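Appendix B, Record 12. Input sequence as logged:
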Amino acid sequence: MSTTLEAVRPIELSEIREARKRIEKTIVRTPLVCLELGAGFPDIRLKLENLQPINAYKLRGAANAVAMLPESERRRGVWTISAGNAGQGVAYAAKQAGVPCTVVVIETAPASKIERMRTLGAKLIPVRYDVAWKALEDRSFAGVEGTFVHPFDDHNFIAGHGTLGLEILEDAPDTAAIIASIGGGGLITGVASTIKALKPEIKVWGVEPETAAPAA
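Logged structural output:
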């Protein structure tokens, strides 16, 4: 089933604050820990999202996106496209909601993530990368029923990620800069939406591997 594409718009701080309340019983409020590099190095802290139940921040966005679906759409079941983390997040949220989940999974995904998605009850459909990307663009995949939850290009998914920014500012209000990874762009968009709404003077930097840098 295809999904109508929403118009691009800013993610409001109110959406992020509401997302925080919505997902607080699903996610872990992860700590900021100091990276000990020795004398002369700046104060660098790491946000330990590997402590989430799926070992990845994607649970924040997935939990909010699934919770925000109208009941009629959620009852039909949900599906997503993933190489692992978003699939685990949507599967986890779907299991909590008591609805079926299908993941169109890139066939080169790590075996550990594939096994976790299965353990969470997801039906898996392995495909090549190019097939998965085409399905992402189309927001549909032949034979898959249910409501599509985009793994990064979704306002509610992004608002869920924005809750990271709230926690960072609470734990380190003197933050001068934040470095966030860029894959699909959902993480940095959510975090930057929070940071720029509350403390616009803070710099937000995006980083990508040299071998996979579509935003460069």
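DSSP finds eight helices and eight strands in the chain.
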